[in-house]
Structure formats: C-alpha cells, structure tokens
Amino acid sequence: MSNAELEIDVDDPTAPEEDSPAVTNSRTVDVAVSLLLLALAAVLAWDNWRTGASWDSTGPEPGYFPFYLSVILGGASLYGIGAAFLSNKEAVETFVTRAQLRRVMAVFLPTLLFCVAMQVLGIYVASFLLIVGFMRIVGKIALWKSLLTAFLFSAVMFVTFDLVFDVIMPKGPLEAAFGY
Amino acid sequence: MEALGLLLHGFAVLLTWKTLALMMVGLVLGVFVGVLPGLGGPNGVAILLPLTFSMDPTSAIVMLSCIYWGALFGGAITSILFNIPGEAWSVATTFDGYPMAQQGKAAEALTAAFTSSFIGSLVAVLLITFLAPWISSFALKFGPPEFFAVYLLTFCSFVGLGREDKHKTVVAMSLGLLLAGVGMDTVSGQLRMTFGSTDLLRGINFLVAVIGLFGISEILLTMEERLALRGHAASISLRTVLAVWKDLPKYWMTLLRSSVIGCWLGITPGGAIAASFMGYNLAKRFSKDPDSFGKGRIEGVFAPETAAHASGTAALLPMLALGIPGSGTAAILLGGLMVWGLNPGPLLFVEHKDFVWGLIASMYLGNVVGLVLVLSTVPIFASILRVPFAAVAPMIVVSCAIGAYAIQNAMFDVWLMLGFGVVGYVFKKIKIPLAPFTLALVLGSRAEDAFRQSMIISGGNMKVFWANGLVGTITTLAILLLFWPLIDRLVASFGKSVPPAAKAEA
Q: Membrane-crossing residues (chain B) (predicted)?
C-alpha cells in the first residue's frame, strides 16, 4: 500500500491515554443503575397505587396500566442486580477510564453551562460562547477560526429559525437591544 | 393497478422545485451525518427534525426521509474507506469493503455498496407500494383488541428475538412505557406520575427524549474515544461504475436473497443489524468459495448492504400502514408525523392520500437522486472527516438544544434532553438497548388506550384477546415470541436427547 493512497489522515491531539486507570467497572454501574431503577419503580408504583390501580365502573383506573408496568420494571431491575453480581465479564470490563471521563466531562460540563447560559443570555449568544469555548479550549483550534465558525453558525441558526421558519427561540439582552 | 395510479399522483405532488430542493438538502445533510463518526440515521433524523417543524407535512417528511437515505449511504463511506462502521449495520460491510479498499479497489467497493443500497431500498419500496394499501385496508377492520395484540407482538418480539440480555430489554421497554404515561390521563383527565410538577403536566415528549438519547449521548460516547482516522481516499469514475453494474447480473441471487431477508426483518422488528449479518452469512454459506469472504470479495459488500437497506426501508411499512414503527428511525419519523398532526395507521391512507403517496414517491426519487449524489461526490464527503470533531460537537449540541426547545417552547425540555443524554450514555455502555426504549415511548399511550378500550369492551375479561381467530393468533404468536429463547432451547435439547436410531426411524 503506497502512502499516496492514504490521503485522509486525521489525528486527535487530545486523545485519551490508552493506559489510563479505570474509574469503575461495568458491574458497579450496572448494579447502581438497577438500584436506581428499582427505586424509581417503587416510587412510580406507589404514585400509581395512590392514583388508583384497580377497576371501577368505567374500567381500569388511571394508575392501573402504569402500576403493573412499575411492578415489571421493579422485577426486571431486581433480576438485573442478581445478574450483574453473577457476571464475571462485567466485573473485569472497564466502564470508563480516568482519561475518558475527563473527555466526557469536557463535553458534558460545557453543555450544562450552555443550558444555564441559554436561560440568561438567549440561545444564540449561548451557542456562540459554547462553540468558541469548545473549539478553543477542547479542540485547541485557532482563535480566529473558532470565532468565525461560532459567529457564522449562530447567525445561520438565527436566520433559519427566527427569520425564515418563525420558530421562537429563547432570547437575551443582546437580541432585545436589536429589537427582537 | 390502483397503487400505480396513486403513486403517479404521489409523483405529481412531489415534483415541485421546492420539494426537490428539500430532497437535495435532506440527502446532503443525511450523507453528512452518516459520514461523521458517531452519528448516523436515527441520530441525524432526531437532531435535524426541528428544521422541519414549520414545514407542511409532505415537505417535512420528504426532507426527513431523505436525511435517512443519505445517512444510510454515508455510513458505507466510512466503513469502506476507514474501516469505521458508522452504524452497527455497517459492521458487516467492513469485512470485505475495507480489504477491497486496501487492495486499491475502494471505488469498486463504494460503487457496490451504493448500488446494493439502492437495490435493497428499491425492492422494499416496491413492497411498500403494493402491500401498504392492502395492509391498511385490512387493518381498518381492526378493533382495540387487535391493535393491542399487534403492539404486544411488537414488544414481545423485541424481548424474544433481541440480541441483548432479556431483562435489559424488559427494563428498557417498561421504562419507556411508564414515561409515556407521565402527565394527564387521556381517559379520565387525572394526573399521573407528575409529583406536583407543572412542567410534567404536558408529559414527556418522546422527541425530547430521543434527541437526548441519540444526539447528546452519542456526542458523549464519541468524545470518549480516540478520534484519529487514517484511511483511503477515493473518487469514483464512470468507467468503474459501469464495470460494477455490468457484473451485477452475476450476483442476482445474492441481491435477491438479501433483499428478501432485509424486507422480512424490516417488517418484523428484527432490524437492519440482524439483516446485514444474516445477508452476509448466507452469501458466504451459499458461495462456492466461502473462504474468499473477508479478504475483499465484492459479494461481501453487496450482501450486507442490500439487506440492511431493504430492512431500513421496509421498517417504514408497518409504521405507515399500522402506526407501528419497525426500527428506531421509523419510530422517530412516526413522532414527526404526530408533531404535524398526522395519525399514522390505516386511516392515514384514507385521510391523507397526498401525504402518503408523496412520501412513497419520495422514496423512489430520493434513492435515485441519492445514488447519483453519492457516486459523484464521494471525495467531498470523505473529506468531511477532516473537520475536527471539536468543531462539530458543539454545533450538534446546539442543534439538539434548538430541537428540544422548539417542540413545546419549554426550557424544561432542554434540561430533560440533557438528562436523557446522560441516561443514553450510561444505558449504551451497560448495554440496555435504546431501540425498544424509544419504541415503547412512542407507542406507550396508544398501547395503553387500546388495552383500556379492550378491557372496557369485555368488562375486564382477558379472553377478549382470544375472542376471534385474528386477535387470538396475534396474541398467541406474541406469547410464543416472548418465550422464544426458552422454546428454542427446549427444542434443541429435545433434539439432542432423541437417540440417533430413533431419529433415523422418524
């Protein structure tokens, strides 16, 4: 195979290290999720029982169908806890390494902040900040490229949704200053 | 013949400049999301759905279905050039597609993939054209017990035939059904599972859940991995295309077999993943030289691609005719129909002929246009991979947020989307399947309504689900499918326990 054939070669400078230690294994997460689902099933079963999970003169009460679903969810979650404890494969399987978790958080936390900013600054300004910040900090991309991409993307979104399709999006002080 | 007349009417509805432009936009966006690592059909449709909210239903569904066709075509590009299957159903394509690229036959492999995608889809669209009106007219005779039995059959087949751990499918499905019930009870008007929250009064919109489950979680998962790519560049010449097409008749049996498998697994909820592997395995089994598979054989590209695309397209048949989606993407499209005030199911063919036949016509046209588009623009789309993911990821996050907000103009939905994103990430990592979760979210309230109406009709007697031959057969089949793994094991152990002499006598 000649090198000329390999025309597309993209490297990832912030790739997670291969030898990063595991934060937790799949079994622990599986058990934790099953416990959470079991708790959710119990709460929902209680709420549906309270709403009415039997029959009246008009047929099944509002909580009837969801009550039995909660019972099924609870049963399957209980089974899941048992199965996870017995699974040797899950015990040795890494759920996430430290380096991977860092990368996941590098997306999740900015997304969380973006949602907060969306309420205060409106969606377009928040989008601009998210894209610039993400490209610059996570992707280590040149500032001018990040600013230009963020501006163009936010502008296209504004024109598409607010002007062309009349979809009302959350706005902030900047849009208000321009009369939107 | 009536179907042909209606189809021509569909083409008349479709052939406007505006719709054709939307079709092109949809295809380009679709190939784009298909090529981007981590994204794909259902994610692309979910993320781009908001673009269609203010369109008329026909334009919207044409654009969405073209995004879907485009994503199906795009997945093959990364599978063959980079050995990266964009979707699970593209895994089998890499077995022979990537070796072909390594041998300098990337253009042949891509032409084979696109052509077989087209053939698979075409066979499925023909099936939809001729079967959908018949099924929907048959389904008009259905009452609530029959509909509930069909829903039950769908749920049970996911549990019985799915590859995942059974309890995990049950968890996904019951959770989806429960979340679909949050909010106001449609029969009594009473509030359920809202816990005093005014935001939950509206219920959990399934599109919000889908955008989080597929869009946000996919970004989290993709960022987690190393995004380094190293692959082959390819451009397709007309000569290569004609050479591959000239050889097509040699593989007619493989193409036919894979199309049949794909259509069957698309209509039943077997799905495109099972179809592509089954298509590949059967092509290998019936081949005169099975050992050559996996080493760059063109048949190994034809078989899985035909089956996967026949399956992906055929999954729209039960969605249109019965209101029951056969795949995750079909479920998202079904949600889209509901947003535009259309009620998928038998009545759709009576009440919204223009829409249904416009959609079916768009399947034909979208596939032809898609084939020409991808064959002529492979190098451009392959170079999309050069765009750093750190630039693409925040744009997808913003698109998801716009989508989630636009559905009900509620900030709460954006938070809900984020929550579902985390749920999707964790579920995918511990292998709780998302397709039955989505399906249950979409069908939940319909299934409950059908169940309650059946119970009211029968005065609470479960015998209503065996009241006549039709409903009885469907319900019994559902139960058989639910316990299929057990039945299968029993049959296998019975076969083993019978002495060879007895077998010979039999």
A: 20-40, 60-82, 109-135, 147-163, 200-220, 251-278, 319-343, 355-375, 387-408, 414-443, 464-487
